[in-house]
Design a protein that fits this description.
Strand content: 15-25%
CATH superfamily of the largest domain: Mur-like, catalytic domain
Number of helices: 17
Number of domains: 3
CATH class of the largest domain: Alpha Beta
CATH architecture of the largest domain: 3-Layer(aba) Sandwich
């Protein structure tokens, strides 16, 4: 087993020696673990040479997948001591009191041994896109490790940190929250040299008394900032003053601001929005810079200003970073363009299905309003519920009608109980269709879409709008294939 893992993992550098890893976690070793080339908590995506952590979650127990992980080439499985008797005597195991606690201990060890310059990102909107932009920008200057996907919670952050190679020059970590007190232990684990808050908006309101409390929760990111570190804050956000005061109260003396407002340390000077990109001129802490963001929208450029601030503060090459921002592509569900082949022509779909709150919804509708359509084409918004907005939820959904009007959206399809409030607020001529769930919206859209249309699909993850994007993509690809065969 370990020989197979070592051969299969030979293309990856060693992440941990088994003895080092066991010592970091206070684990007892049983069997003969191979070298550790990666860390996994999912047997479905595990690579040979990974250490598999059998984490017990709300929906599943990782111990049920240990044998599958070992059969797939895992070097070792990290399991609870009390479960050791469940596995073959020769299985390579590390025995710990609690698997998640062991992952946190390994993350702490990874950070302690690293000489990388570290940045941590939080905010109500744009965390993952900003993290991916920083990954690309810093990679142009040196080896960069960053959180995978949106691994930003109580298991995602330690998992990402435990994967930090000793050789990395830079580290980028996304930290999320949906209740007070969640960020503090995570940022104390990461111990960043730079923290970046993209913005503070109405998100996860169900868990907070108001947006001021959300700002205070985001300000927890200052709790783990290394001595002498820098906070990068959005000067254009109305909660900037509250965040800056919180930074000062927590001993953060160095604050760098970004935005279009007068006096920003990283200031937007001009902006040209195009269908597939945004071109900006800015002053980056005294350095004039023209750059292209390979995604459309003012909100994207706003976050890129924060990215470039962090790049300069970390000592990386600003010119190389700017070039990479022009090449990057959006993460899945965050502005990915999809072509729908209708047989007699094409429609364009923008996949914004990963998540939604009022701020990101406004930004996405603004982008849709700027996108070109084909001849006789229409701008169509396909919107699912925005979740976790608390008592104001219906009013916040209904208020989107004004953004629909302001951005000249021609037609709106709504899905979900909460989006019914928007449906009722729309004028009849803008109503495309309504369904209780995304699945039942598909046939309505399929019959309504015509060549030249530009669609944008957006909703909270729980509204399952991503499945609608997949269904439409498959339907119109299949239709095209059938026509080609005929």
């Amino acid at each position: 087993m370990s020989e197979h893992a070592g051969k299969a993992a030979s293309g990856r550098p060693l992440l941990y020696d088994p003895g080092e890893m066991a010592a970091a976690m206070g684990a007892d070793m049983r069997g003969v673990p191979g070298g550790i080339y990666g860390i996994s908590i999912d047997s479905r995506t595990l690579e040979p040479g990974d250490a598999f952590f059998a984490i017990t979650g709300e929906a599943s127990d990782g111990h049920a997948y240990v044998e599958k992980a070992l059969a797939a080439g895992a070097s070792v499985a990290v399991v609870a001591r009390e479960r050791a008797g469940s596995f073959p005597a020769d299985a390579p195991l590390m025995l710990v009191d609690d698997v998640l606690d062991a992952l946190n201990a390994l993350a702490h060890h990874a950070r302690a041994r690293s000489s990388a310059r570290i940045v941590a990102i939080t905010g109500s909107v744009g965390k993952t896109t900003t993290k991916e932009a920083l990954r690309a920008a810093l990679s142009a200057d040196g080896e960069t490790h960053a959180s995978a996907a949106s691994y930003n919670n109580h298991w995602g952050v330690p998992l990402s940190l435990a994967r930090l190679p000793r050789s990395a020059r830079y580290g980028v970590f996304e930290i999320g929250m949906n209740h007070p007190g969640e960020i503090t232990p995570l940022v104390k684990l990461v111990r960043p040299h730079v923290v970046l808050i993209t913005t503070v908006e109405a998100a996860h309101l169900a868990q907070f008394s108001g947006i001021e409390e959300i700002a205070d929760a985001k300000a927890e990111i200052f709790d783990g900032l290394e001595a002498g570190g820098t906070a990068v804050l959005n000067l254009d956000n109305p909660h900037f003053g509250r965040l800056k005061a919180a930074a000062g109260a927590k001993g953060v003396s160095h604050v760098v601001t970004f935005g279009a407002a007068e006096g920003a340390d990283v200031q937007l000077k001009s902006l040209t929005l195009q269908p597939g990109c945004s071109v900006a001129m800015a002053d980056i802490l005294g350095t004039p810079l023209t750059f292209k963001a390979a995604l459309p929208g003012r909100h994207i450029v706003q976050n890129m200003l924060g990215v470039l601030a962090a790049v300069k503060l970390l000592g990386a090459d600003l010119a190389l970073a700017a070039l990479e921002l022009g090449r990057m592509r959006p993460p899945q569900g965050r502005g990915v363009p999809v072509k729908l082949d209708l047989g007699g022509g094409e429609a364009s779909l923008i996949d914004e299905s990963y998540n939604a709150n009022p701020a990101s919804m406004r930004a996405a509708l603004e982008v849709l309003g700027q996108l070109e359509t084909g001849a006789r084409g229409r701008r169509i918004a396909v919107l699912g519920d925005m979740l976790e907005l608390g008592p104001q939820s219906e009013a916040l959904h209904a208020a989107i009608a004004e953004d629909i009007r302001a951005n000249k959206i021609d037609l709106v399809f709504c899905s979900g109980a909460l989006m019914h409030a928007l449906w009722q607020a729309l004028p009849p001529e803008r109503r495309g269709g309504y369904a209780h769930d995304a699945h039942h919206l598909e046939p309505m859209l399929a019959s309504a879409i015509r060549a030249g249309d530009t669609l944008m699909v957006k909703g909270s993850n729980g509204s399952r709008m991503g499945l609608l994007v997949k269904a439409l993509s498959e339907r119109f690809r299949a239709q095209s294939d059938a026509l080609a065969e005929g």
